[in-house]
Please model this.
Amino acid sequence: MNKIYFIFFVLLLFSCKPKATKDDVKIDEKTEQNILQLAKGYFTPLSKFDIEKLNPERRKMVELGKRLFYDKRLSGDQTINCASCHDMNKYGVDNLPISPGDKKQFGTRNTPTVLNAFLQYAQFWDAHARTVEDQCVGPVFGNFEMDMPDTVTLLKRLEEDEYYRKTFAEVFPKADTAISVTTFKRAIGAFERTLVTPAPFDEYLKGDLKAISNKAKLGVKAFVDNGCIPCHSTSIIGGQMAQKFALYGYYWDYTNSSYIDKGRYGFTKDPGDKFVFKVPQLRNIVKTYPYFHDGSVSDLKEAIKIMGMAETNIQMKQEDIDNIYEFFKTLTGEIPDHAFENK
Model:
């Protein structure tokens, strides 16, 4: 009888023992430190933005920019606002391949996230605007986007609002005209420059080895080993250059895109810019699907695989793809409370 109880106890003990998961991988101390130093060599951490530290004048400008960001009067038929495509609840995008415009019209390019966007070297997929201030007016007057007919209509709508008349005058007391396209751009830009999203990866870069999983750490190494670093580094892991897509073959053979977009060539008319696009940042990439300039790929692991073949001519191992995906999960950050409409 005692023997039977002993066997039962052993079986119970093993049945209660936590089962190993796919995330349970071990890294020796030397490898741990080598990966951390590798990461520090290519990436820099983001810090949390504290709006409370802004002086009263700057904070009022940010609040004005936020009001504009959420105002549907900025679109021709007053049906959408900036947040319609750059939804803070969806990490600054709308998760659609192509966003519908003011009249449900469609363009050809996917909406990039507005989060951390000001840290990029340029804006738009063809990099034709250098700053978020220059960028913000493009969609307002874009035929496939907010479709505002002209600057006269835009400024008239703002001037008819008592809050805007009062606040623009307070925020821009030295401007020749308080409400103008220039002050409009500066206000929205001020708001967008507060949209910083620090993530667990930043804590890791600061030395907290427990901030991310071991698989994610191996993903950092795989990211480097598979040649992703030349385009994707710095604090936002990309967004610092334009590059041809694809370097090997034609991008539509990988993405099955229905429309062939010639990239920067459409703006510059320089033959060397055919199929050249701004390299996207990878902050919050798990949340900002679908991927590529036309939103043609919805699965992130598939997008990782495509980039390996198209840009580095590498057929990535599935283990590397899985680990890089785990690394990307650590880039999902915290959106500032003040970014949301009702906070």
